[in-house]
Each structure stands twice: as structure tokens, then as C-alpha cells.
Task: structure prediction
Amino acid sequence: MARGPRKHLKRITAPKHWMLDKLTGVFAPRPSAGPHKLRECLPLMLILRNRLKYALTYRECKVICNSRAIRVDGKIRTDMCYPCGFQDIITIEKTGENFRMLHDAKGRFVLQPIMAADASFKLCRVKSLGMGVGQIPYVVTHDGRTIRYPDPLIKPNDTVKVDIQKNAIVDFAKFDVGNVCCITGGHNIGRVGIIQHTEKHPGSHNIIHVKDKTGATWATRQSNVFVLGTGNKPAIKLPKGNGIKLSIIEESARRSQRQNASK
Result:
């Protein structure tokens, strides 16, 4: 009989978006307890070994992390199983690189290279609003932050721009019709579009209708929608493809165009 939390994760049951092959080993790195859920994050080890190729083995990842070379959201992280999730900022000082964790249109994590100025802030979705000891108001964000004294106009589902060093709100975007958003869960994960309208379902999930630049529309739960900015201009740089999902036919057509152009 098992006692305590599980400490292992089989490769076959690891999330598909980690893109681990079946034959390289039996186990996968199990993310530590942290700000993001197990199936909604990418362990630091996979970023170093499988994405950036700075390490070849488990042991090399350990050496890199123990050398205190990696920062996540401005803090040094020596745990190579630390869970990095949506909008997290990864900084490697020795190479001078900064990355923002985003989703591509197929729902996979993408390390979007950014400038040092953009690495000083991140966007956070407000999950709840509360009143603490001494009647001090605070908000809780999607990455586990608690920020005191927010603007009174900020409500749950809004997005706040957070200064990482000060842990303070610099700006915010309301969850309103006409604002640009991206989808962080469900079948449409990674897609970017404009909020069209909200279907209210008391006692159940509110449904949000979204439309992208190509005119394609879809509907998803309110909890899956992350506002990126006010109006149709996102506050961050989007990954390749700008969140536009292509059909299989469109993808094959583009692939054949590239092949023809290279000949």
C-alpha cells in the first residue's frame, strides 16, 4: 500500500505535449509541487535537455541547476523538476537569454525568445479576489501569487501585468468583449482571437465565443480564456503563427510551398 505522495512518473503516462518518445527510457521527470499543475507545466529539466539542448543527460541537468545558472520569474531555481508553466519567464544569465513560456496553436509549450526589457514583467490571470487580515484587499493569480492592494477595478478573470522584481501590478486588462485573448485549455489551446460574447450559465460554466483574424470562430469555457491585452493588440510577443490554427490541408499546402521554394 502506497504511503505519501507519488514520487515517480512513467513516460507513457506523461502529458503528450511534453513530446517524450517511448523508447528512450521508462520514466519521465515528475514535476515538483509548485505554482502549476502537473499536466499544465513543463519541468525545468525537459526545457534544458529536450528543448534548448544545453544538456544531454539527467546528470548534466543536475549540474546546470546546481550551478545556480537558471532563473524562473527572477528567482534562482536549483530544483530541476521545478514546474514551469504558461507565461513564466526563464532567464539564463550566462548566455544572456530570456524566454517566455507560451502555447503554440497545437497546444505545445513554446519557449518564445524575448528581450531583457520584456523579461521584467509577466501577465497573470486573476483567479480570485479577497480580503485579508486588517481588511487588506488582495488578488490571487494563476501562478500562485498573492498581490496586496490591487486596483479596485480589477476583478476575477481579468489579466494583470506584474513587475517580477517588485511583485507589484503595473497595468491590467479587463475581461471584456473586443479584447484579444488566448486559450489555455481544452481543444482550442494555443489559439488567439477576439472575445465576441459571453453565454451566462448560472450554476454551470460560462461559455465564451472567440473569433480569430481569419474569421474562424469557436466557443470554450470561461476558465480557459486568458486576456492578452486591451483591444486587438496583445501586450506580449506571440510565437510563430500568431495563434492561428491551420487545417491539415492548409498545413500540407504550406509545406509543399516551402519545399518548392527551396528547390
About this structure: The chain has a mean pLDDT of 93. Residues 248-262 form the longest helix (15 residues).
